[in-house]
């Protein structure tokens, strides 16, 4: 029997990413493929860099999308900025800090871990103590928006603290970019990476990155070659670089880049501040509905991410059954817990294109139905109205 074309169902993606992709982005991706050195494509790449600078709020020349998912953006930062023997303070308050540690160690660096409880922001005092105890530290790395728990850390003050101690900073902004206030130049972030499938609502598989002057200085003065050929910025820049002639490094994912270009045009049309405000407003509406049901957030209010809502699963409720029922009956995907939170929390994403009124009301209505069917200890019939009240203001 011949295998036929694949036709995925139309889901509502309200997990930790990927988020719903705008039809405009999907349409852009279906446009004719160009050669990766075609002058028309190259001028699109120049626009892309400008659009990314806007999204990151930076003038950094070295701002571009790495041709691979967010994890590759993470790796790009570490392999270029960490040399064998370098000490790196890694703040861990969830899954992704653990991956940073792996990266440091695979670069031959020494990771000094600053641990915080999962579900809390990174504690500035602990970072300061670690910097004082390790005056030879070269880099401080942390996750701005910890998608595994829904906690947001104080990027601005963490960067200021690292600089006070003469360290460079690597910031994970995979989930924060376009969803929460993020100002690369104003906060003086040295190296930052993001992803396309969270609040940019593009398809997965690209990782916007940006590097400032101090980071470039460090890369220029490396004693050793970057151990990854593919992610070595000196080589990548022969393709993505400024005014110099573009040379082949790897074949860019042409049509994916059309999609990112369109996603960034959409962001520009909405306005970055308006996008941040929309994520916050929709979070408040969802929160009102969830709290009316009696569901509890994992993260204290002042440290919560608007785009990722982590909730404690009520006592006695079958996590997998609820999520499967939401998927089968409502085409609705919400996220499971990761790592130590597996089986204990649900993660409801309100990211990018998916952060809208319809999704909030569908999600609350669906939860109301499914939690009622499994006889969960929650208040039924009140969530949608509670959210509506916030949305109408
Ligand atoms: C999703 C995510 C990543 C990894 O991105 P991929 O595109 O899955 O490789 C890294 N850090 C954070 C905080 C994320 O949410």
UniProtKB/TrEMBL annotation:
Supply the name of the protein: Serine--pyruvate aminotransferase
What is the required cofactor set for this protein? pyridoxal 5'-phosphate
Boundaries of every Aminotransferase class V domain copy: 36-339
GO MF annotation terms = alanine-glyoxylate transaminase activity; L-serine-pyruvate transaminase activity
Residues modified as N6-(pyridoxal phosphate)lysine: 198
Query: Which parts of the sequence bind substrate?
Result: 347
Name any Gene Ontology BP term. Answer: glycine biosynthetic process, by transamination of glyoxylate
Q: What is the lineage of its organism?
A: Bacteria, Pseudomonadati, Pseudomonadota, Betaproteobacteria, Nitrosomonadales
Which Pfam families does the entry mention? Aminotran_5
What CDD domains does the annotation carry? AGAT_like
Query: Which domain of life does this protein belong to?
Result: Bacteria
Family designation? Belongs to the class-V pyridoxal-phosphate-dependent aminotransferase family.
* Family annotation (InterPro entries): Aminotrans_V_dom (IPR000192), Aminotrans_V_PyrdxlP_BS (IPR020578), PyrdxlP-dep_Trfase (IPR015424), PyrdxlP-dep_Trfase_major (IPR015421), PyrdxlP-dep_Trfase_small (IPR015422), SP_NH2Trfase/AEP_transaminase (IPR024169)
The record's Gene3D superfamilies line, in alphabetical order, gives:
Aspartate Aminotransferase, domain 1 (3.90.1150.10), Type I PLP-dependent aspartate aminotransferase-like (Major domain) (3.40.640.10)
Q: What class of enzyme is it?
A: transferase
Q: Which residues form the signal peptide?
A: none
Originating species: Candidatus Nitrotoga fabula
Q: What is its EC number?
A: 2.6.1.44, 2.6.1.51
């Amino acid at each position: 029997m011949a295998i036929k074309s694949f036709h995925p169902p139309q889901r509502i993606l309200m997990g930790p990413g990927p988020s719903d992709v705008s039809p405009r982005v999907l349409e852009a991706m279906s446009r004719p493929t160009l050669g990766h050195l075609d002058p028309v494509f190259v001028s699109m790449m120049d626009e892309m860099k400008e659009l990314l600078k806007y999204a990151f709020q930076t003038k950094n020349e070295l701002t571009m999308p790495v041709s691979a998912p967010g994890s590759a953006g993470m790796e790009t930062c570490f392999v270029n900025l960490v040399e064998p023997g370098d000490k790196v303070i890694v703040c861990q308050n969830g899954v992704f800090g653990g991956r940073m540690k792996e990266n440091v160690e695979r670069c031959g660096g020494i990771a000094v871990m600053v641990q915080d409880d999962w579900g809390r922001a990174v504690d500035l005092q602990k970072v300061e103590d670690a910097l004082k105890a390790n005056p030879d530290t070269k880099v401080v790395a942390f996750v701005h928006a910890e998608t595994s728990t829904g906690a947001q850390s104080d990027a601005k003050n963490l960067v200021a603290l690292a600089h006070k101690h003469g360290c460079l900073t690597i910031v994970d902004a995979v989930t924060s970019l376009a969803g929460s206030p993020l100002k690369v130049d104003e906060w003086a972030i040295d190296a930052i990476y993001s992803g396309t499938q969270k609040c940019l609502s593009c398809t997965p598989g690209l990782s916007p990155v940006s590097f400032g002057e101090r980071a470039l200085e460090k890369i220029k003065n490396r004693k050793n070659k970057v151990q990854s050929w593919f992610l070595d910025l000196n080589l990548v820049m022969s393709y993505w670089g400024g005014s110099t002639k573009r040379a082949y490094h790897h074949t860019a994912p042409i049509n994916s880049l059309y999609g990112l270009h369109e996603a960034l045009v959409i962001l520009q049309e909405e306005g970055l501040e308006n996008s941040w405000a929309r994520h916050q407003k929709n979070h408040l509406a969802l929160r009102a509905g969830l709290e009316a049901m009696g569901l509890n957030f994992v993260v204290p209010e002042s440290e919560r991410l608007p785009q990722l809502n982590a909730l404690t699963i009520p006592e006695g409720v079958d996590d997998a059954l609820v999520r499967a029922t939401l998927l089968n009956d409502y085409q609705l995907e919400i996220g499971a817990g990761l790592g130590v939170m597996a089986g204990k929390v649900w993660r409801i994403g309100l990211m990018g294109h998916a952060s809208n009124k319809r999704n909030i009301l569908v999600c609350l209505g669906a939860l109301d139905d499914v939690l009622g069917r499994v006889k969960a200890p929650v208040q039924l019939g009140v969530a949608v109205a509670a959210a509506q009240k916030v949305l109408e203001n």
